[in-house]
Amino acid sequence: MTIKMRVEGLRELDDALKSLSTRTAKTTAERAMRKALRPVADAAKAAAPRSDDGKHMADTITVAKVLKPSQRDGAERPTDFRRIMYVGAESPHAHLIEFGTVERFHKSGKSTGAMPAHPFMRPAWDGNVQAVLASLTEHLRREIDRAVARAARRAAKAGK
């Protein structure tokens, strides 16, 4: 499942991003998005199931800008000024835990059982979406200011 979020009304920040080089703008936006999405990942880690063998689903939850090859089918690609970030578990079984399963059977008729849903990603998103939106603007503003200051220092250093 993909949840898309479009942030509008940030014209001055958008203009500031576009005034930076493309590479710097991409990095700046990704850094701000990663920071803004961190509370979602932290909440998902707190709610993710724990196992007795020491291999915890929570340990695989990350904020990333790329998907694993097995997850890329149908995923959107970033463009020059459109960045995409993902929050989720890298475990191949995460979706089974999140949504649960119905009882399944082998060809022999043997049951593999059913697994009840144990949602951890959706509640993490639902509980933090407003905080993500509120903090994204602040993180973006701070990262743009840092990028502009870095560019000014580089220009001053090159001018000497």
From TrEMBL:
Annotated InterPro entries: HK97-gp10_tail
Superkingdom of this protein's organism: Bacteria
This protein's name: HK97 gp10 family phage protein
Organism of this sequence: Paragemmobacter ruber
